[in-house]
């Protein structure tokens, strides 16, 4: 909101007699360059069809909505910056008159001129427009300084041929409707209307309703300092400035209901109730050049001046009267107010010990009561019988006789705070740390500050202090704490005893109501009390309690114990800092720190009409766009969308509240704000509906203004583009995952192969561990044959042994050999062992037929050690021939191999073995087990080795050892 200057400007009311008296003040607000006005010199003002106020200045035009000025110059389309007049036609256009004579007008949202509108191309011939008229068919007519008529049809601007002048247009007002309130003429002589009568003196009384209607509806003519109502039949002078003390030429005039405003080059004159026959004139804006006057649709008065900007008088201020040091009072600060109804004398208490009185004719006189230095304000004024008023000041108690206009000191009291009078006239005084019963006794040296006193009857009263509430009687003369604990902890500022209830105003907790020593009601700002800081309580005697606070006045219905209304500076008070209140029937007087206000309390105007809301502009990113209701734009990354709205509110524009909704739901989702700029940062592509509404002080919500916002997506934000990008991303992820999985599989494969290879090498190494044992035993056998002189048999044995060794070496290089190769190897080995043991045993292979259908591969050298142990440790120790059976079967994809001998048995063999042999055997068996474990690590098949002593394991009386082994195999068809 522009910074508004509030000034109180007062003037003398001039009567037909020489007698003068002080008049009612008006609150006037000034707008100037610092507030955004284009220039301090303003020639004219008009209100357009939407409600905006336009001002013409030497440096362009200003459009005002009550809060902001929007200025237009040549760069915005004006034909010249020096705009001297304005006119608003019925189609909503605002016309601008410049000294170059070229026509231009504003029509939302542009200024039209010959540069952008061919219908305005016109040769002015150096004459400018003076007056404008609405015509039939939507035509606009102009009269220029050459007394020529120009017509604008909407398609062209052209001169009208013929002998036409201003009188012709005023006579034919049914054809030409003037777009200005008055015309300046040098005289009324109309050569083309010789029958017209001219009345220099009004033939009708000013309160005649027909005269008022005529003046309101017909053209007004200004001739120097007189005003005429002009018709084709006659011209009647209804105002002669000289008769009203106005001797300067009238520059402008404004009709305001029954009031008349007259502007001159030196001042503004307000003739209140002029058309009711009243002869009251107030001179305002002394030494101001008034260039134009305008009454807007709300009743506000706008005054443009030459060099002093624009003044505005809000409509509601006409319901208030103001007094301060500019129109009769000693100062602007007022502490108390009361009235002697018998003499109709108003008493106004101020600082510096000054008492002001104002009689029924508004004559103000001043009296000095308290002449002490320092604080000597008049804090309280109360009626005291006929013609007497009791006045308490900072330093004493006085009696003021309203008949003789004389004051008498009753008692000097330092730091007096409050005075109350009992029903029969006994006076109680609250002062600093004492309570005084006048002419009777006092209670002093209290350890508390006494702020207020309220009489219950002639002998009992309540006392309010900074430490709570107390009760006292004339009999005990002692302050006794009373009420609840709450009241013993608060700072009490004022008390009022009303019909059996004590109303207690506090310094920071609002108001308490006590009845029978119990709190029955509490009012605070949460309950709509104007403020919790109560400065004074005033009871009007007819059911209304007025609470003066630092934020306005609250009115409480005592009977219903409810707050009925609040009155603040927003309603027209000169200040919210209320010090005192007095009610005189319908007239309410309010003493404030900025003057006295008085008004009809039941007729305070309240503007409940919702404001007009409009879209000002749109900003998206770094660009600003014209106000349109359907905004479409391509998406900008991290760009903020802002919609700037405005309302046309000339009274209290700073209290306008907005609500916006971006969801399209008219019942929910409204967001309240005081800002007229609604931001949406980084608005994503989509279609939105923005709805905005506003309300001003005490009004309802306005109609909703809606606008559609479409943010179009970029190509990469389109659904198909996003689909492609998503698909590409998925493919990329799949390729990446496939690559990672492939690498993992390859690594696992390499690791598995590496482990398998290690296992194979370990198996081969274990296989190779078997070879030395076999070779050692075989060489022992050859040695035995040689020692026994069996050379031939030894040679044969060596030949077979060599063949067996080659076969063993070939098999040891392989991870697997076929079962046939293993049987062939075992057969050759057994034959050699039979030779070595002199054919002391026989053997047999038993192979399941199913094994013959497949090629079975088994690890090499895994059965041979078992067979060798069976021969050497089972069969060899027997004294008779032994038998060895090797059985091969398929069991769940494993080769079952059993080596069964009828030797001496496992346990017996172990008992006769030497420690060396036991160690050797344990090593052989552990090697087989370890080989089976290694085969499991890279093959997954689980092998098994089990040694059974048949005699001990339930095979009857059979002796021998049964070794069972499950061997992992590879099976092929």
UniProtKB/TrEMBL annotation:
Positions of the Two component regulator three Y domain: 650-711
Highest taxon of the lineage: Bacteria
InterPro entries attached to this UniProt entry: Bact_2-comp_sensor_kinase (IPR050640), HATPase_C_sf (IPR036890), Ig-like_fold (IPR013783), Quinoprotein_ADH-like_sf (IPR011047), Reg_prop (IPR011110), Sig_transdc_His_kin_internal (IPR010559), WD40/YVTN_repeat-like_dom_sf (IPR015943), Y_Y_Y (IPR011123)
Domain Signal transduction histidine kinase internal region stretches: 762-840
GO cellular component, one term: membrane
Chain segments annotated as transmembrane: 719-741
Pfam families per record: His_kinase (PF06580), Reg_prop (PF07494), Y_Y_Y (PF07495)
GO-annotated molecular function: phosphorelay sensor kinase activity
Keywords: Coiled coil, Membrane, Transmembrane, Transmembrane helix
UniProt entry tagged with the keyword Membrane: yes
Ranges in a coiled coil: 737-764
Protein's recorded name: Two component regulator with propeller domain
Annotated organism of origin: Chitinophaga polysaccharea
């Amino acid at each position: 909101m522009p910074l508004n200057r509030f000034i109180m400007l007062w003037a003398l009311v001039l009567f037909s007699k020489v007698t003068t008296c002080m008049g009612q003040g008006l609150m006037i607000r000034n707008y100037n360059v610092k507030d955004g006005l284009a220039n301090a010199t303003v020639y004219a003002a008009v209100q357009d069809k939407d409600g905006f106020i336009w001002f013409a200045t030497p440096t362009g035009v200003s459009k005002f909505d009550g809060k902001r000025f929007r200025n237009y110059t040549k760069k915005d389309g004006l034909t010249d910056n020096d705009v001297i007049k304005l006119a608003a036609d019925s189609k909503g256009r605002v016309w601008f008159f410049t000294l170059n004579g070229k026509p231009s007008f504003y029509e939302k949202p542009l200024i039209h001129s010959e540069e952008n509108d061919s219908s305005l191309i016109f040769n002015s011939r150096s004459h400018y427009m003076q007056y404008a008229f609405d015509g039939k068919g939507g035509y606009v007519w102009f009269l220029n300084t050459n007394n020529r008529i120009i017509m604008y049809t909407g398609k062209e601007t052209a001169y009208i041929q013929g002998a036409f002048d201003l009188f012709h247009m005023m006579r034919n007002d049914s054809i030409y409707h003037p777009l200005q309130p008055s015309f300046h003429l040098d005289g009324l002589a109309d050569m083309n209307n010789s029958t017209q009568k001219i009345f220099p003196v009004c033939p009708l009384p000013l309160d005649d309703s027909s005269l008022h209607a005529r003046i309101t509806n017909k053209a007004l003519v200004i001739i120097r300092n007189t005003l005429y109502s002009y018709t084709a039949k006659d011209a009647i002078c209804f105002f002669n400035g000289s008769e009203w003390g106005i001797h300067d030429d009238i520059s402008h005039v404004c009709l305001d209901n029954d009031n008349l405003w007259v502007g001159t080059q030196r001042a503004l004159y307000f003739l209140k109730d002029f058309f009711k026959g009243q002869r009251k004139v107030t001179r305002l804006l002394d030494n101001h050049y008034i260039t134009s006057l305008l009454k807007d649709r709300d009743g506000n008065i706008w005054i443009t001046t030459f060099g002093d900007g624009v003044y505005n008088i809000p409509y509601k201020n006409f319901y208030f009267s103001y007094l301060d040091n500019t129109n009769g009072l000693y100062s602007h600060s007022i502490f108390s107010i009361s009235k002697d109804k018998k003499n109709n004398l108003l008493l106004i208490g101020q600082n510096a010990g000054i008492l002001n009185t104002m009689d029924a004719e508004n004559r103000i006189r001043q009296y000095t009561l308290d002449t002490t230095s320092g604080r000597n304000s008049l804090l309280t004024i109360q009626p005291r019988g006929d013609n007497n008023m009791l006045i308490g000041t900072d330093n004493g108690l006085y009696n003021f006789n309203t008949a003789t206009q004389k004051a008498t000191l009753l008692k000097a009291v330092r730091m007096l705070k409050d005075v109350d009078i009992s029903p029969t006239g006994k006076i109680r005084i609250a002062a600093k740390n004492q309570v005084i019963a006048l002419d009777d006794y006092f209670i002093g040296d209290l350890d508390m500050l006494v702020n207020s006193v309220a009489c219950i009857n002639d002998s009992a009263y309540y006392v309010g202090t900074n430490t709570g509430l107390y009760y006292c009687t004339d009999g005990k003369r002692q302050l006794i704490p009373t009420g609840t604990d709450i009241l013993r902890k608060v700072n009490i500022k004022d008390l009022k005893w009303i019909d059996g209830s004590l109303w207690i105003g506090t310094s920071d907790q609002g108001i308490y109501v006590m009845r029978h020593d119990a709190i029955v009601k509490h009012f605070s700002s949460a309950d709509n009390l104007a403020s919790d800081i109560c400065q004074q309580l005033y009871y009007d005697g007819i059911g209304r309690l007025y609470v003066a606070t630092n934020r306005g006045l609250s009115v409480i219905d005592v009977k219903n114990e409810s707050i009925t209304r609040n009155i603040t500076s927003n309603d027209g008070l000169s200040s919210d800092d209320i010090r005192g209140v007095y009610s005189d029937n319908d007239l309410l007087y309010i003493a404030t720190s900025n003057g006295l206000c008085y008004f009809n309390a039941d007729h305070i105007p309240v503007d409940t009409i919702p404001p007009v809301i409009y879209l000002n502009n749109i900003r998206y990113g770094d660009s600003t766009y014209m106000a349109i209701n359907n905004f479409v734009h391509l998406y900008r990354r991290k760009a903020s969308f802002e919609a700037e709205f405005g309302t046309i509110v000339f009274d209290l524009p700073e209290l306008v509240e907005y609500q916006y909704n971006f969801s399209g739901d008219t019942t929910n989702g409204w967001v309240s704000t005081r800002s007229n700029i609604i931001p949406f940062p980084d608005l994503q592509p989509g279609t939105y509906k923005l709805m905005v509404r506003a309300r001003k002080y005490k009004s309802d919500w306005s109609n909703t203004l809606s606008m559609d916002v479409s943010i179009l997506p970029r190509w990469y934000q389109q659904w198909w583009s996003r689909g492609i990008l998503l698909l590409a991303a998925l493919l990329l992820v799949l390729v990446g995952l496939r690559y990672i999985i492939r690498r993992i599989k390859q690594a696992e494969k390499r690791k598995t192969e590496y482990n398998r290879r290690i296992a194979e090498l370990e198996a081969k190494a274990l296989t190779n561990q078997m070879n030395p044992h076999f070779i050692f035993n075989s060489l022992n056998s050859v040695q035995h044959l040689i020692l026994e002189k069996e050379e031939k048999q030894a040679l044969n044995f060596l030949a077979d042994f060599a063949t067996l060794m080659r076969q063993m070496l070939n098999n040891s290089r392989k991870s697997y050999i076929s079962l046939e190769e293993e049987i062939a190897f075992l057969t050759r080995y057994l034959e050699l062992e039979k030779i070595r043991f002199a054919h002391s045993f026989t053997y047999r292979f038993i192979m399941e037929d199913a094994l013959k259908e497949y090629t079975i591969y088994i690890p090499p050298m895994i059965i041979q050690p078992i067979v060798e142990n069976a021969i050497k440790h089972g069969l060899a120790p027997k004294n008779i021939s032994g038998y060895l059976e090797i059985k091969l079967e398929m069991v769940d994809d494993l080769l079952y191999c059993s080596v069964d001998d009828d030797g001496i048995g496992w346990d017996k063999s172990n008992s006769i073995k030497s420690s060396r042999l036991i160690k050797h055997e344990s090593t052989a068996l552990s090697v087989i087990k370890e080989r089976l474990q290694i085969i499991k690590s890279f093959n997954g098949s689980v092998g098994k080795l089990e040694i059974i002593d048949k005699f001990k394991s339930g095979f009857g009386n059979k002796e021998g050892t049964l070794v069972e082994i499950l061997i992992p195999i590879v099976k092929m068809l």
